[in-house]
Protein backbone atom coordinates (compact mmCIF):
# COMPACT_ATOMS: atom_id res chain seq x y z
CA UNK A 1 0.00 0.00 0.00
CA UNK A 2 1.53 3.34 -1.10
CA UNK A 3 2.41 5.73 1.64
CA UNK A 4 0.63 9.07 1.36
CA UNK A 5 2.80 12.15 1.79
CA UNK A 6 2.01 14.21 4.87
CA UNK A 7 -0.47 17.07 4.24
CA UNK A 8 1.09 20.42 3.52
CA UNK A 9 0.92 22.88 6.34
CA UNK A 10 -0.94 26.07 5.55
CA UNK A 11 0.99 29.03 6.86
CA UNK A 12 -1.16 31.99 7.72
CA UNK A 13 0.78 35.22 7.77
CA UNK A 14 -0.39 37.86 10.20
CA UNK A 15 -0.63 41.24 8.57
CA UNK A 16 0.69 44.05 10.72
CA UNK A 17 -1.99 46.64 11.31
CA UNK A 18 -0.72 50.14 10.79
CA UNK A 19 -1.80 52.44 13.60
CA UNK A 20 -3.29 55.64 12.17
CA UNK A 21 -3.07 58.50 14.65
CA UNK A 22 -6.35 60.23 15.48
CA UNK A 23 -6.87 63.54 13.80
CA UNK A 24 -6.43 66.55 16.01
CA UNK A 25 -9.64 68.50 16.29
CA UNK A 26 -9.14 72.24 16.15
CA UNK A 27 -11.97 74.19 17.73
CA UNK A 28 -12.72 77.47 16.03
CA UNK A 29 -15.09 80.23 16.90
CA UNK A 30 -18.50 79.45 15.47
CA UNK A 31 -19.71 81.95 12.92
CA UNK A 32 -23.38 82.12 12.07
CA UNK A 33 -26.22 80.25 13.71
CA UNK A 34 -26.01 76.92 15.50
CA UNK A 35 -24.87 74.02 13.27
CA UNK A 36 -27.01 71.04 12.29
CA UNK A 37 -25.11 68.88 14.79
CA UNK A 38 -26.56 71.09 17.54
CA UNK A 39 -30.14 70.26 16.55
CA UNK A 40 -32.15 69.35 19.64
CA UNK A 41 -29.49 70.71 21.98
CA UNK A 42 -30.64 73.58 24.23
CA UNK A 43 -29.22 76.89 23.00
CA UNK A 44 -27.74 77.63 26.42
CA UNK A 45 -25.65 74.44 26.12
CA UNK A 46 -24.51 75.43 22.61
CA UNK A 47 -23.40 78.87 23.86
CA UNK A 48 -21.68 77.32 26.87
CA UNK A 49 -19.71 74.98 24.58
CA UNK A 50 -18.56 77.91 22.46
CA UNK A 51 -17.31 79.72 25.54
CA UNK A 52 -15.57 76.65 26.95
CA UNK A 53 -13.90 75.97 23.57
CA UNK A 54 -12.27 79.40 23.85
CA UNK A 55 -11.43 78.80 27.53
CA UNK A 56 -13.26 82.01 28.41
CA UNK A 57 -14.97 82.83 31.70
CA UNK A 58 -18.74 83.14 32.00
CA UNK A 59 -19.44 84.20 35.56
CA UNK A 60 -22.64 86.04 36.39
CA UNK A 61 -21.04 89.46 35.87
CA UNK A 62 -19.21 88.58 32.62
CA UNK A 63 -20.26 89.82 29.19
CA UNK A 64 -20.67 86.88 26.79
CA UNK A 65 -21.99 88.75 23.73
CA UNK A 66 -19.04 87.55 21.60
CA UNK A 67 -20.44 84.01 21.77
CA UNK A 68 -24.05 84.88 20.87
CA UNK A 69 -25.10 85.04 17.22
CA UNK A 70 -27.72 87.19 15.55
CA UNK A 71 -31.25 86.07 16.38
CA UNK A 72 -30.23 83.80 19.26
CA UNK A 73 -31.32 86.10 22.09
CA UNK A 74 -34.97 85.55 21.15
CA UNK A 75 -34.38 81.79 21.24
CA UNK A 76 -32.66 82.13 24.60
CA UNK A 77 -35.71 83.99 25.96
CA UNK A 78 -37.92 81.05 24.89
CA UNK A 79 -35.63 78.55 26.61
CA UNK A 80 -35.51 80.58 29.84
CA UNK A 81 -39.31 80.91 29.72
CA UNK A 82 -39.72 77.13 29.53
CA UNK A 83 -37.47 76.61 32.54
CA UNK A 84 -39.11 79.45 34.45
CA UNK A 85 -42.45 77.74 33.88
CA UNK A 86 -41.00 74.69 35.63
CA UNK A 87 -39.97 76.92 38.57
CA UNK A 88 -43.53 78.23 38.89
CA UNK A 89 -44.91 74.70 38.78
CA UNK A 90 -42.43 73.59 41.46
CA UNK A 91 -43.67 76.50 43.58
CA UNK A 92 -47.15 74.90 43.24
CA UNK A 93 -48.67 77.85 41.35
CA UNK A 94 -51.64 76.99 39.13
CA UNK A 95 -50.55 78.95 36.07
CA UNK A 96 -53.29 77.34 33.93
CA UNK A 97 -56.16 78.80 35.95
CA UNK A 98 -54.50 81.77 37.66
CA UNK A 99 -54.96 84.57 35.11
CA UNK A 100 -52.25 86.65 36.81
CA UNK A 101 -49.48 84.07 36.20
CA UNK A 102 -50.47 82.57 32.85
CA UNK A 103 -47.72 84.47 30.99
CA UNK A 104 -45.42 85.17 33.93
CA UNK A 105 -42.70 82.77 32.76
CA UNK A 106 -42.39 84.57 29.40
CA UNK A 107 -42.44 88.01 31.04
CA UNK A 108 -39.73 87.05 33.53
CA UNK A 109 -37.55 85.50 30.80
CA UNK A 110 -37.76 88.67 28.69
CA UNK A 111 -37.00 90.79 31.75
CA UNK A 112 -33.86 88.80 32.59
CA UNK A 113 -32.40 88.52 29.08
CA UNK A 114 -33.52 91.79 27.48
CA UNK A 115 -33.56 94.16 30.46
CA UNK A 116 -32.11 93.60 33.93
CA UNK A 117 -29.27 91.23 32.85
CA UNK A 118 -28.91 92.70 29.37
CA UNK A 119 -25.32 93.79 30.06
CA UNK A 120 -24.26 90.14 29.80
CA UNK A 121 -25.70 89.56 26.33
CA UNK A 122 -25.13 92.73 24.26
CA UNK A 123 -21.98 94.46 23.06
CA UNK A 124 -20.49 97.44 24.85
CA UNK A 125 -22.13 100.71 23.72
CA UNK A 126 -20.27 102.52 20.98
CA UNK A 127 -18.25 105.50 22.20
CA UNK A 128 -17.78 108.75 20.35
CA UNK A 129 -14.42 110.20 21.34
CA UNK A 130 -13.50 113.85 20.91
CA UNK A 131 -9.97 115.25 20.88
CA UNK A 132 -9.05 117.43 23.84
CA UNK A 133 -8.47 120.47 21.64
CA UNK A 134 -8.58 122.94 24.55
CA UNK A 135 -6.17 120.80 26.60
CA UNK A 136 -8.64 120.59 29.48
CA UNK A 137 -7.11 119.28 32.69
CA UNK A 138 -9.62 120.33 35.34
CA UNK A 139 -11.81 118.10 37.50
CA UNK A 140 -15.05 116.88 35.89
CA UNK A 141 -17.83 115.21 37.89
CA UNK A 142 -20.69 113.28 36.30
CA UNK A 143 -23.61 112.22 38.45
CA UNK A 144 -25.57 111.14 40.20
CA UNK A 145 -26.26 108.44 37.61
CA UNK A 146 -29.15 106.17 38.57
CA UNK A 147 -28.10 102.53 38.60
CA UNK A 148 -30.12 99.33 38.70
CA UNK A 149 -28.44 95.98 39.18
CA UNK A 150 -29.00 92.68 40.97
CA UNK A 151 -27.20 90.79 43.70
CA UNK A 152 -25.69 87.61 42.26
CA UNK A 153 -26.31 85.79 45.56
CA UNK A 154 -30.11 86.09 45.61
CA UNK A 155 -30.91 87.93 42.33
CA UNK A 156 -32.51 90.68 44.42
CA UNK A 157 -32.43 94.28 43.12
CA UNK A 158 -29.63 96.74 43.85
CA UNK A 159 -30.87 100.30 43.37
CA UNK A 160 -28.60 103.29 43.77
CA UNK A 161 -26.56 106.16 42.38
CA UNK A 162 -23.05 106.59 41.00
CA UNK A 163 -20.75 109.60 40.76
CA UNK A 164 -17.81 109.59 38.38
CA UNK A 165 -14.86 111.94 38.69
CA UNK A 166 -12.43 112.41 35.82
CA UNK A 167 -9.23 114.43 35.71
CA UNK A 168 -8.24 114.46 32.02
CA UNK A 169 -4.74 115.11 30.79
CA UNK A 170 -4.06 117.50 27.95
CA UNK A 171 -3.92 114.50 25.62
CA UNK A 172 -6.84 112.49 27.05
CA UNK A 173 -9.78 111.57 24.86
CA UNK A 174 -13.12 113.13 25.81
CA UNK A 175 -16.44 111.31 25.52
CA UNK A 176 -19.98 112.65 25.45
CA UNK A 177 -21.73 113.00 28.81
CA UNK A 178 -24.47 110.54 27.86
CA UNK A 179 -21.83 107.85 27.29
CA UNK A 180 -20.99 107.79 30.99
CA UNK A 181 -24.60 106.81 31.71
CA UNK A 182 -24.67 104.23 28.92
CA UNK A 183 -21.41 102.60 30.01
CA UNK A 184 -22.55 102.57 33.63
CA UNK A 185 -25.85 100.92 32.71
CA UNK A 186 -24.08 98.32 30.56
CA UNK A 187 -21.81 97.32 33.45
CA UNK A 188 -24.57 97.36 36.06
CA UNK A 189 -27.16 95.33 34.12
CA UNK A 190 -25.76 92.01 35.32
CA UNK A 191 -25.97 89.90 38.49
CA UNK A 192 -22.99 90.93 40.62
CA UNK A 193 -21.74 92.40 43.84
CA UNK A 194 -21.31 96.14 44.20
CA UNK A 195 -17.63 95.96 45.17
CA UNK A 196 -16.70 94.31 41.85
CA UNK A 197 -19.03 96.44 39.72
CA UNK A 198 -17.40 99.76 40.61
CA UNK A 199 -13.92 98.33 39.99
CA UNK A 200 -14.96 97.10 36.53
CA UNK A 201 -16.45 100.50 35.70
CA UNK A 202 -13.29 102.31 36.83
CA UNK A 203 -11.10 99.91 34.81
CA UNK A 204 -13.15 100.52 31.68
CA UNK A 205 -13.08 104.32 32.04
CA UNK A 206 -9.32 104.28 32.56
CA UNK A 207 -8.85 102.19 29.44
CA UNK A 208 -11.18 104.26 27.24
CA UNK A 209 -10.30 107.80 28.32
CA UNK A 210 -6.74 107.42 29.64
CA UNK A 211 -7.11 110.26 32.16
CA UNK A 212 -4.66 111.38 34.83
CA UNK A 213 -7.14 110.17 37.41
CA UNK A 214 -10.57 108.57 37.70
CA UNK A 215 -12.85 108.13 40.72
CA UNK A 216 -16.08 106.20 41.15
CA UNK A 217 -18.40 106.36 44.18
CA UNK A 218 -21.53 104.25 44.44
CA UNK A 219 -24.30 104.34 47.04
CA UNK A 220 -27.04 101.72 46.84
CA UNK A 221 -29.91 99.94 48.55
CA UNK A 222 -29.59 96.15 48.55
CA UNK A 223 -32.91 94.35 48.55
CA UNK A 224 -31.22 91.09 49.56
CA UNK A 225 -30.83 92.86 52.93
CA UNK A 226 -34.01 94.95 52.95
CA UNK A 227 -36.52 92.52 51.41
CA UNK A 228 -35.24 89.32 53.01
CA UNK A 229 -32.78 88.20 55.67
CA UNK A 230 -32.44 90.84 58.39
CA UNK A 231 -34.96 93.11 56.56
CA UNK A 232 -33.10 96.27 57.51
CA UNK A 233 -34.63 98.87 55.20
CA UNK A 234 -32.39 101.75 56.28
CA UNK A 235 -28.99 100.24 55.51
CA UNK A 236 -27.09 101.30 52.40
CA UNK A 237 -23.73 100.37 50.95
CA UNK A 238 -21.25 103.03 49.84
CA UNK A 239 -17.90 102.26 48.27
CA UNK A 240 -15.35 104.08 46.18
CA UNK A 241 -12.54 103.44 43.74
CA UNK A 242 -9.76 106.01 43.37
CA UNK A 243 -7.19 105.81 40.60
CA UNK A 244 -4.22 107.91 39.57
CA UNK A 245 -4.31 111.49 40.87
CA UNK A 246 -7.38 110.81 43.02
CA UNK A 247 -5.38 108.21 44.92
CA UNK A 248 -2.17 110.22 45.18
CA UNK A 249 -3.49 113.74 45.73
CA UNK A 250 -5.52 114.11 48.96
CA UNK A 251 -6.63 117.63 48.00
CA UNK A 252 -8.12 116.44 44.71
CA UNK A 253 -9.82 113.53 46.45
CA UNK A 254 -11.19 115.87 49.12
CA UNK A 255 -12.53 118.28 46.49
CA UNK A 256 -14.28 115.48 44.62
CA UNK A 257 -15.87 113.96 47.73
CA UNK A 258 -16.98 117.35 49.08
CA UNK A 259 -18.65 118.29 45.79
CA UNK A 260 -20.63 115.05 45.48
CA UNK A 261 -21.62 115.28 49.16
CA UNK A 262 -23.57 118.46 48.35
CA UNK A 263 -25.67 116.54 45.83
Features:
263 residues, alpha+beta, GTP Cyclohydrolase I, Chain A, domain 1, GTP Cyclohydrolase I, domain 2, five-stranded mixed sheet, two-stranded antiparallel ribbon, 8 helices, globular
Secondary structure: elements and pairs:
Layout: H1 43-53, H2 72-90, H3 104-116, E1 129-130, E2 140-151, E3 157-167, E4 174-175, H4 177-188, E5 191-192, H5 194-209, E6 213-222, H6 223-226, E7 237-244, H7 245-248, H8 250-261
Parallel strand pairs: 2-5
Antiparallel strand pairs: 1-4, 2-3, 3-6, 6-7
Helix pairs in contact: 2-3
What features would you describe in this structure?
- This protein is α+β, with helices and mostly antiparallel strands and 263 residues long.
- It has two domains: 36-120, GTP Cyclohydrolase I, Chain A, domain 1 (Orthogonal Bundle); 129-261, GTP Cyclohydrolase I, domain 2 (2-Layer Sandwich), CATH 3.30.1130.10.
- Helix content is 35%, strand content 18%.
- The protein is built from eight helices and seven strands, in the order H-H-H-E-E-E-E-H-E-H-E-H-E-H-H.
- The strands form two sheets. It has a five-stranded mixed β-sheet, sandwiched between helices. The protein has a two-stranded antiparallel ribbon with strand order 1-4.
- Strand 2 (140-151) and strand 3 form a beta hairpin.
- The radius of gyration is 29 Å and the shape is globular.
- The protein starts with 42 loop residues before the first helix and ends with a helix.
Concise overview:
This protein has helices spanning about 45-55, 70-90, 105-115, 175-190, 195-210, 225, 245-250, 250-260; strands spanning about 130, 140-150, 155-165, 175, 190, 215-220, 235-245. By secondary structure, the protein is α+β, with helices and mostly antiparallel strands.
Amino acid sequence: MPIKPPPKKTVVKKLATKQVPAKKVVTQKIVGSASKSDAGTPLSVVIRRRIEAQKARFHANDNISAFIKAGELEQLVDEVAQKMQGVLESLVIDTENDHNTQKTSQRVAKMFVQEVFNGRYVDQPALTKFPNVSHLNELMIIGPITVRSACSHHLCPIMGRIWIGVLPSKTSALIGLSKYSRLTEWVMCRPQIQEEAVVELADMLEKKIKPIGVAVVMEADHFCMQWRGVKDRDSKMINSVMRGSFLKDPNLRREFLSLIDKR
